[in-house]
Amino acid sequence: MNDRSNIRRVVVTGIGVVAPNGCQLDRFWDSLCAGESAAAEITRFSTEGLPTRIGCEVTSLNVGDYMDARKAKRFERSIRYGIAAAKMALTDSGMSLENMDPDRAGIVEGTSVSGMESTFKGQLAFNSKGYKSMSPFTLINAYCGGCSGEIALELGAKGHVITLGTGSASGNDAIGYALEMIARDEVDLMVAGGSEAPILAPLWGAFCLTRTMTKRNDDPKGAMRPFDRRRDGFLLGEGGAYLVLEELSHALLRGARIYAEVAGHGKSCEAFHSVAPQPEGAGLQRAMQKALRRAGMHTTEIDYINLHGTATDANDLVETRAVKHLFGDHARRVSVSSTKPVTGHLLGASGALESAIACLAIQREMIPPTINLKEPEEGCDLDYVTDGARPYPVRAAMNLSAGFGGKNSCLILRQYRPE
């Protein structure tokens, strides 16, 4: 265990979500615990002739509640989702950045394909009618740091603003980055998370070619089946999530509500394959070990793990092996689940959304279920919480994310206790 006596403690005081299953925190949480999948036929483009025609679209966001109509019109979806989720989080925290030292607050965004919508549209316009037919806002939308900059403008954040891109590990890494910035006394508050809008025809086609999305088109809500022997891939989703992280005394001084403490973050790269995980989960194990070491915790203190859980052939077995190897006998006692069958896979934003889920599991003493798991794959023998949401006083939760290129990220959140 490491000496944490001089490390500033960091807590979560605000959460904002834009998700296919709900854009208000209570609605989002209730549908998650009820196992109400947001999966449906895709409406954004024609899916005729495609092997996968279902996914999880955001349908309930009223963009006008969070930004000027003219701005909303010029921004692509990923930026709209990011601004809305970040504003929700800051409102939920009860904070305003107006009266803070501008160098003591910042934004960190995690994303993987943000900007592609504008890039694709710009290419089509350029090819058909030349450069003058392109939107003048293409450049603002298309570069990967666009969303964090626009969030900073909307919130008035004048300090440290940055965008991270580590594939599906991006959201987790954004929160981990914010943790270290606050712990090292660089800032007192960070709005951290991510957003994605990957439901785009060219990107969809590319995912179809990788054969990682489910083809169970006749049963959208029962299609994604993590850890099941009949699993055939994930549901692609969209949306975003942001958390407000604060230094503990800063939060206590203003009487903030605390969802959880951010205890540790660990990351690793397997350098094994462009898209496939290392078969024994060595990289995931190292990320978990680093997070535990940073938190000064032991595996027996973890009550719940939100797994990456993509319902792909390799991921589910590899994650299970990694947890069993690292946790030993305690692996049989820890509750684990994948929430992606309800929300869809939000790529770079998934880690942020699932970290929000971990915070809510701690605060509301409820572990969300893994839906659609009926016949566990041989070797998938952990407690996947298949019997509905489980009331439980979660002391600490892990969130695991894995990105292309073997980039792994683990966050540990725990109950806030004064001592």
Through-space gap between termini: 17 Å
The SSE string, one letter per element, is EHEEHHEHHHEHEHEHEHEHEHHEEEE
Spatial strand sequence of the major β-sheet: 5-4-6-7-1-8-14-13-9-10
Shape: globular
Rg estimate, integer Å: 20 Å
Indicate how many domains the architecture comprises: 1
CATH topology: Peroxisomal Thiolase, Chain A, domain 1
The low-confidence parts are: none
Largest sheet: 10 strands, mixed
Number of helices: 13
Beta content: 15-25%
Q: What would you call the structural class?
A: alpha/beta
From the 3D coordinates, which CATH architecture would you assign? 3-Layer(aba) Sandwich
Total strand count, please? Answer: 14
Percent helix: 25-40%
Describe the structure in brief.
The protein contains 13 helices and 14 strands. With 419 residues, it is of the alpha/beta class.
3D architecture notes:
This protein has about 425 residues and is of the alpha/beta class. The protein has a single domain (about 10-415), classed as Peroxisomal Thiolase, Chain A, domain 1 (3-Layer(aba) Sandwich), CATH 3.40.47. The chain is about 35% helix and about 20% strand. The protein has 13 helices and 14 strands. The protein has helices at about 25-35, 70-75, 75-95, 115-130, 140, 145-155, 170-185, 200-210, 250-255, 280-295, 315-325, 340-345, 350-365; strands spanning about 10-20, 40, 55, 105-110, 160-165, 190-195, 240-245, 260-270, 305, 335, 365, 390, 395-405, 405-415. Strands 5-4-6-7-1-8-14-13-9-10 form a 10-stranded mixed β-sheet, with helices on both faces. α7 (about 170-185) crosses α13 and α10 (about 280-295) packs across α11 (about 315-325). The radius of gyration is 20 Å and the shape is globular.
